[in-house]
Sequence to fold (826 residues):
Amino acid sequence: MAKEGADMTEETEYMIDKNVSKEAENVESSGDAKEMRAVVLAGFGGLNKLRVTKKAMPEPQDGEVKIRVKACGLNFLDLMVRQGTVDNPPKPPLVPGFECSGIVESVGENTTGFEIGDRVMAFVNYNAWAEVVCTPVDFVYKMPEEMTFAEAAAFSLNFVAAYMMLFEVANLREGMSVLVHSAGGGVGQAVAQLCSTVPNVTVFGIASCFKHAAIRDSVTHLFDRNVDYIQEVKKISPEGVDIVLDCLCGENTAKGLTLLRPLGTYILYGASNMVTGETKSFFSFAKSWWQVEKVNPIKLYEENKVIAGFSLLNLLFKHGKCSLVKSVMDKLLCLYDQKKIKPVVDSLWALEEVKEAMQRIHDRGNIGKLILDVEKSPTPLMASDSTETSEAGEEEEEPEGDNDSKERMPFIH
Amino acid sequence: MAKEGADMTEETEYMIDKNVSKEAENVESSGDAKEMRAVVLAGFGGLNKLRVTKKAMPEPQDGEVKIRVKACGLNFLDLMVRQGTVDNPPKPPLVPGFECSGIVESVGENTTGFEIGDRVMAFVNYNAWAEVVCTPVDFVYKMPEEMTFAEAAAFSLNFVAAYMMLFEVANLREGMSVLVHSAGGGVGQAVAQLCSTVPNVTVFGIASCFKHAAIRDSVTHLFDRNVDYIQEVKKISPEGVDIVLDCLCGENTAKGLTLLRPLGTYILYGASNMVTGETKSFFSFAKSWWQVEKVNPIKLYEENKVIAGFSLLNLLFKHGKCSLVKSVMDKLLCLYDQKKIKPVVDSLWALEEVKEAMQRIHDRGNIGKLILDVEKSPTPLMASDSTETSEAGEEEEEPEGDNDSKERMPFIH
Fold:
């Protein structure tokens, strides 16, 4: 673990390198000029599988853009990647991260539309959490002038996902109602803002109590996730709601479905329940993820209901929908220019602070998006430091709590 | 069964009355002036459970319209009602039928918007197959001047269902593709016409081979239901289609889902497979209906797919969406006035010919809608007549074929 002090970065890397896997060592054998810092996941498991290390500098291939990264988005999905609970993850060691912002450093052959020095945001199929990343031009978008790098890194995934769920999968129109779980999270805040661009939309938000003061103005009604929100929503809207956005999965799916009014759409866009403390090992994660309750189409028929799944990353990297996403991004940037939407940044973290940042998401502590700020130095630890690294195996208890006593003070934006 | 000849109607009724159930007899005890002809389903089962008999004339209640019926729509759902395979059917004896057209004969207290003599079409929660019907004013719509009663009876259910599935549940837009099963049926033809109102929509139709010549122009590509249409569609559109409309259910649901492209919507709007000859008894119908393959939401998430159920009758009579349906009807009548859509009537049948009409739907013989024409006299039988009535029990073989030898020649429109 990192030590206090201004020059801790080098020391952190040195210490972490001792634990680095063989594959990663080979990559690091290249010369200094061709190296970059990156967050590496050495194997699936707990926070202890993450370290900052040096990796070979990537070079842009045909049709790719090379980006000097300024900021990266940290998503719940990254926690699932860490635990290996996503579908077909690459073999570790791997560099996590699906989105970043930065400056174009060079472009590959047959790459048009971008020039060196362009400020851009981009989707990346892994590898975003590094100083430099290369990604196909189809996944790169120019940033508006007034947008900061942190905002840009907070923008792409959350707003594109929120927009596509509301307007492409469901068909949000005037007078409708939307229920969003994790209303304080990155997607939740994007959903709330996008709903406010349509007249007379009611937003029911679910969030932990301690977030209520901060996000009360962003939604119409706010409920504690620990109360029986089904009953609370029904008190206000006995017929139910038109759209349920559920990133939780598991037992809440059936509950959410009962809240749908006829012709309503239930959208499952993640499975963050799978990364809570209740199911702790990799094995039980995977098990509960795959054993989610199935839906009877006949029930949908009788109740006039719609159930949808939405995975933006699959849409981009497996389903080839980048031109559709590009058209959505254009609409979103238009709304940003009109100041109708603005990404909410929870906090900025150095690459070396990725574990604490992940812990904050795990604990549902964030309001808006967590950003890895590549140029940021780690913030001094708050409490007594420890260099111990938990070596918990994949089948053992989660080591999520192992740094409770040395929580950092993030830079709250 | 009916005899040949012009005055057969009275004789038919007389003969059928011998078999009528006790409840129906009680109803018929009222005076002649207060009676009307109606199709009565004496109990759930085969065609032999249907008869034309006299029933007490209904009178409009508060908020209701009394309609002198001219034509009624016959739908696949009516076959399911006959067999008792719908959810919570009323206790027989009952008068089937969910839609009709006719002339307003009187209105109940607090019924505004309609006057005696208005030409109307209406949804009815059962009881449509009669000379007179009363239904709440919310389910009644004025007919365009140039629309015939047969067209009106063919219009409501099919076009409202097709419109809502394409534009409310899915979000049909320019350039999309639609797969429709039973392309030759009433809903299928409505779907094809509505798709043609949107630029550049590709319609893949599935229909029995013998219908192909008649409906080829209504769709872009036409496939025989007996070939491997999944492969055929994929040859033309490797990525799949945007919308699958499935009235078949059962084993085809999984097949249809594989045809969906990312962000595509699969809509289950009926279950006509449940009324084919393969599963013959009431019990096995019900069993297969309820044992349809369930859908894993995680699979929807990974594949970015949407599955929806759509039941217009539940929407109207259980879910209270009559004002939404009214707004859809307004749009449809606008398209009708612009001559962009026009209901396809397969054939007209007298009330006494309801069994033969049902058999025609059962055999998938129709192109467009079957209409019960209340003022029509039964057409002379084509072959040797028989007064035998099959008394097949609910658990016995379907008596669907029992009138093969005396098929009528319907009035093909």
Q: What stands out?
A: The longest helix of chain A spans residues 149-169.
